[in-house]
Amino acid sequence: MSMRASARAPDWPRRLLRGALVLVAVGFMVLFLLLPLATVFVEALRAGVHAYLASIRQPEALAAIRLTLLVAAIAVPLNLVFGVAAAWLMTRFEFRGKALLGALIDLPFSVSPVIAGLVYVLLFGAQGWFGPWLDAHDVRIIFAVPGLVLATVFITLPFVARELIPLMQAQGSEEEQAARVLGANGWQMFFRVTLPNIRWALLYGVLLCNARAMGEFGAVSVVSGHIRGLTTTMPLEVEMRYNEYDFAGAFAVASLLALLALVTLAVKTLLEWRYGNEIAAHAPGGH
Amino acid sequence: MILELSHLQRRFTDFPALDDVSLTIAPGEFLALLGPSGSGKTTLLRILAGLDYPDSGSVSRDGEDFLAMHARERGVGLVFQHYALFRHLNVTENIAFGLRVRPRRSRPSRAEVGERVERLLQRVQLEGLGNRYPAQLSGGQRQRVALARALAVEPDLLLLDEPFGALDAQVRVALRRWLRELHEDLGLTTVFVTHDQEEALELADRIAVMNNGRIEQVGSPEAIYQQPATPFVCEFIGKVNRLPLRCEQGRLAAGSWVLGDDPWQGRHARAIAYVRPEHLALDVPAAQPGWTARLRHVYLAGSIAHLELVVDAPEQLLEADVASEDLARLGLHAGMQLRVAPRSAVVFPQAQDGTPVPGDRWAWQAGAAVPR
């Protein structure tokens, strides 16, 4: 007994330190993460549930929600296909310029979203390189839905690929080779061996890609033109309402985005907890 | 089913993996591709499996172009060094994979697949483990699953890449014997890659020794061991003493050990004799040519003993093997003086700068006549 007591005695400064660190971390989290998040919901519901629902049911809000879902529904599958193809290329083949391709995949992370939007304006805008040609053929990209999709695809391009590359590198291609020798054709090899091996990492990447696709503001803002009900996605709608001093309305739409973030977080945590070893250790954007 | 490999060339960016390799694989034989890492043996195996292609040269099976065939038509089973089992499939599903991916016309029925998997599980002694996942198996079990998976498609040719490389020593020996029996039961043609000469000598009907992308020698284990064709084969297979020879007055000699008249009559500036440790005589009469040596160490290794001998002229360390029971018979102990000489040796000529001269070789025997 006395031994145990003496062993425990020098332990309490460590526990004190640990307690202090936990307190600091929790305080930081509350101040910078939880409090703002709570504010969103509190402000949204300040005028009551009826007002909240009414401001979400406004046609502009509904149009923004529809547009956001549409843009994500196009951008995410595109980047799913691109991400898998790019990861396959990067991990299964040796070729000249591989490092360059890797850097290009990362480019959207390193470029400011505003620049990304601006590039598309310079390319496809009225005064842009292809502007006159597009105008002549009556195709609208900038200040229209195609521009929003383009900007979103650009911004969310790395998420799936970056999630898959380290995993596929670690897994190697031996199982695929085994499938080939056993007589599988290319599709059988992909759907029966490759895809099952990367499915959780792929789902994780898609989830992050989707969260960003729905939440993107900067690039989308540049190409949108802010035409109410036509080219405003949810983040843009939030900003416009806020600028018009419709705080309750702004927070109501913002609460939907916050909800999306919470759901994403929950599913992501669930995935990490359940399939942590099959998901690459580093999350995209974390560098 | 005869496989003819002829003049295969395969270059990787900075080195030749295969350099003019020709080889005939006979039906039903157990062939070892033996060589150090980077010798091209795995590249050769991958070409047979359809995972790699030569830059030039051809492979034909009974006259048909083997390289043009799809994996399914080749009738090849491959066991990878690290098994490459499908980690998301259980043992049964792993074994059935090759049958399930067949086009509908040639795919066996579900019941047939189940039956065949069950038979294979029995064959590789893994009954009852069909529901396990690869991660839940030991190394030896995984290897047998990989083998069963390769056998499920009923191949004519079984390819094994370092089949015992990743196993610990005890499992390795047991599995080796078992594999040999399996080969005899099934009557398949089996080709395996190894860097372990002991494994190759024990298992194979025939060994192809590879080095730097070339086949140095093909032959039975006895031929490879007793009549090595090149200096590389001498040094790579088994232990060997390497003795530089000089040509003096038309005779080849190393110090006071004289082999006899130079069979090349001065055409080659130098020569090297290779002598196996068990081919050193330790009680040579003074009248016969030989060296005086000091016995420095005796290492007893079970049934045989390794002796370390020091010769003064020419300065040379020799290794000799004797049966353990001969230690007492010959009265051998560390520190004693012995008169030693090789009973047999393989002699290779060298150019002035020490590079080997290919093609020439003299199998020297004590007391035998010098070839002319």
Report on this model:
- The complex is a heterodimer of chains A (287) and B (372).
- Chain A is 78% helix and 0% strand.
- Chain A has 287 residues and is mainly alpha-helical.
- Chain A has 14 helices and no strands.
- The longest helix of chain A has 34 residues, at 59-92.
- With 372 residues, chain B is α+β, with helices and mostly antiparallel strands.
- Chain B has a six-stranded mixed beta sheet with strand order 6-7-8-3-9-10, sandwiched between helices.
- In chain B, a hairpin with a 4-residue loop joins strand 1 (3-11) and strand 2 (16-25).
- In chain B, helix 3 packs parallel to helix 5 (139-152).
- Chain B is elongated and about 80 Å long.
- Chain B starts with a strand and ends in a 7-residue tail after the last strand.
- The mean pLDDT of chain B is 89.
- The A-B interface holds A 174-175, 177-185, 188, 192-193, 196-197 and B 49-51, 70-72, 76-78, 80, 82, 84-88, 97-98, 101-102, 149-150, 153.
List keywords for this structure.
heterodimer, A: 287 residues, mainly alpha, 14 helices, B: 372 residues, alpha+beta, 6-stranded mixed sheet, 6-stranded antiparallel sheet, elongated
Short structural description:
Chain A is mainly α and 287 residues long. Helices cover 78% and strands 0% of the residues of chain A.
Question: Would you spell out the secondary-structure blueprint of this structure?
Answer:
The complex is a heterodimer of chains A (about 290) and B (about 375).
Chain A: H1 2-8, H2 12-44, H3 49-57, H4 59-92, H5 98-110, H6 113-124, H7 131-136, H8 145-156, H9 158-171, H10 174-181, H11 186-215, H12 218-224, H13 234-243, H14 247-275
Helix pairs in contact in A: 2-14, 3-14, 4-8, 4-9, 4-11, 6-8, 6-12, 8-11, 8-12, 9-11, 10-11, 11-14, 13-14
Chain B: E1 3-11, E2 16-25, E3 30-34, H1 41-49, E4 56-61, E5 64-65, H2 71-74, E6 76-79, H3 91-100, H4 110-123, H5 139-152, E7 157-161, H6 169-186, E8 189-194, H7 197-203, E9 206-211, E10 214-219, H8 221-226, H9 231-236, E11 241-248, E12 251-254, E13 257-261, E14 270-275, E15 280-281, E16 291-301, E17 304-311, E18 316-323, H10 324-329, E19 337-342, E20 344-350, E21 362-365
Parallel strand pairs in B: 3-8, 3-9, 6-7, 7-8
Antiparallel strand pairs in B: 1-2, 1-4, 4-5, 9-10, 11-12, 11-14, 12-13, 14-20, 15-19, 16-17, 16-19, 17-18, 20-21
